[in-house]
Amino acid sequence: MVRPHGENLHYQLTVSEVTELNEELKKAVPAGHVFCLRDVSAFKNLDQVKSEFLATISHELKTPLASINLSLMLMQDERVDAARRLEIAGGIRSETQRLLGMVGQLIEVSRLDAGKEIRLNLAPVPLPEVVRYATDIVRAQLTDKDLRLDVQLAEPLVPALGDVEKTTWVLINLLSNAIRYSPHGTTLTVRVRPWGEMVQVSVEDQGPGIARENHQRIFQRFGSLAAGGAPAKGSSGLGLSISREFITAQGGQLWVESQPGQGSCFTFTLPGAA
To answer: Burial letters for 77-103: b for 16+ Cβ neighbours within 10 Å, e otherwise?
Structure first.
């Protein structure tokens, strides 16, 4: 069946026999049947989304591998000068980081789906250092799209209490998403400031924005969206889901403020270190 707006409906029919006790025969005899019609559309749609995810992640893994292979072939060419070799090496590093990020997402998803708890190493987190490291990681992506980066660090700023590795992972993911959806030549803004007993970190872009009805969907597994609300191509749809779980496990929150045509601001909080 298909709904008027095009969504496929799937039902599962189960037939169960009903018996009753026959007093004369002293045994159970057939008395009829019970028909149960169950809506399994959500499960079928999830299977389809997972199939699309596997196709996407396969393509996403293949692309950087092909790029690395080509870069290595170029570096073997004796006619390539030292400056060009250095540039090629930077590209290989960038693609390697991209691969590591995707593999890391898959590992974390498998751990979480297996019911394993998120392992945390809680300690004071110097957020200015986290911001510097994360922005250095995405520097090549910023340059590629001619994006300006505006970093605003409040002073004084107490350290956050959290896991520095996972907090850094979340910030890199938010920056990468902002870069992906930002038009060329625009500005990304990173803000870090006290927020009561918490510390707040936000990443703001000037991209297409996200409709309010999709603000929760994007934090679900395989829930990434492109401009206009369509499923995003070239995205695993896992980053925001994992990011929210990482932040929640540390006692914080992660949310988005956005409207179509007005960009997006992703914000997370962490407890301040006493």
So the answer is: eeeeeeeeeeebeebbebbebbbebbe
Together in a domain, 105 and 232: no
Q: How confident is the model at residue 224 (pLDDT cuts 50, 70, 90)?
A: low
Mean pLDDT, to the nearest integer, of 118-131?
92
In what helix (H) or strand (E) does residue 255 lie, and over which residues does it extend? strand 254-258
**For residues 163 and 120, is the Cβ–Cβ distance under 8 A?**
yes
Tokens 């159970």, located at residue: 28
Q: How many C-beta neighbours within 10 Å does residue 1 have?
A: 8
Distance CA 67, CA 64 (A): 5
Separation CA 34–CA 202 (nearest Å):
55
Domain enclosing residue 232, as ranges: 124-271
What are the pLDDT digits (tens) for 143-190?
889 999 999 999 889 999 999 989 998 999 899 899 999 999 999 999
Domain membership flag for residue 9 = no
Q: Where among 62, 88, 113 does a domain terminate?
A: 113
What length does the chain have?
A: 274
Q: Do 160 and 194 contact (CB within 8 A), yes or no?
A: no
Q: Whole-angstrom Cα distance, residue 179 to residue 135? A: 11
State in Å, rounded, how far the first CA of the chain is from the last one. 58
Q: What is the pLDDT of residue 124?
A: 96
- Find where tokens 């520097």 sit: 139
Within a domain: 4: no
Tell me the residue type at 57.
I
Phi, psi of 180 (to 5 degrees): -60, -40
C-alpha distances (whole Å) from 44 to each of 11, 48, 49, 186 are: 10, 6, 9, 40
Please compute the mean of the pLDDT values over residues 116-122 and round it to a whole number.
Answer: 81
Residues 62 and 155 in one domain: no
